[in-house]
Amino acid sequence: MLIDPKLRGKVPVVDGTVAVKQPTPQPTEEATQAATEAAAACPVTTGIVTGSNVALKEKPDTTSKDAGATVRQTEQVTVLSWNASGTWFKIRNKDGVEGWVGSAYVAVPQPKWASIPHDYSFVEVTVTPVGK
After folding, report:
1. Cβ-Cβ contacts under 8 Å for 40 (sequence gap 6 or more)
2. Cα 90 → chain centroid
3. What is the pLDDT of residues 54-103, one digit of tens each?
4. Would you place residue 42 in the very low, low, confident or very high pLDDT band (cuts 50, 70, 90)?
5. Which of 42, 55, 53 lies closest to 100, judged by CA?
6. Domain that holds residue 82
7. ∠ CA 59-61-66, rounded to 5°
8. Can you give the pTM of this predicted structure?
9. Do the domain assignments include residue 77?
10. Is residue 112, in this structure, part of any structural domain at all?
């Protein structure tokens, strides 16, 4: 932009940094209320036990130790995660005990499966014999 030479002397020129004072935020009742309210709960996926009396396991493996609790048919459980192959669910029963059960023993609606996180902390190995 060109400035008329006659006006050039009247245009203030600032050389260097200009400090701009920002307003100090003041607490408001509305902000304080919002900050102290409990956060909304994360979405929870539940399932219904289909087996008659299923032992919770410490690991997603039939030879794993029992976790110290069982779940019964028609009991509602919280599904926390599933293993990489989808053959085991990590669940929490109504007493808060967590453990693994075969996914065949818990009915979870198929559309909800996508919202269940995977647990990759256990490795599964499948041995495939080579032809004779």
Report:
1. none
2. 14
3. 999 999 999 999 999 999 999 999 999 999 888 999 999 999 999 999 99
4. low
5. 55
6. 45-119
7. 60
8. 0.63
9. yes
10. yes
Asked, for residue 28, whether it belongs to a domain, the answer is no
Tell me the two tokens of residue 17: 């940094």
Cα(67)–Cα(123) distance, rounded to whole angstroms? 19
Alpha-carbon span 86 to 102, nearest angstrom? 9
Beta bridge partners, 49, equal: 106
Place of tokens 């499948």: 126
What pLDDT shows up at residue 79?
Answer: 95
Q: What is the count of structural domains for the chain?
A: 1
pLDDT for residue 66: 94
What gap in Å lies between CA 3 and CA 64, rounded to an integer?
A: 84
Say which residues have a Cβ less than 8 Å from residue 122's Cβ, sequence separation at least 6: 59, 60, 61, 83
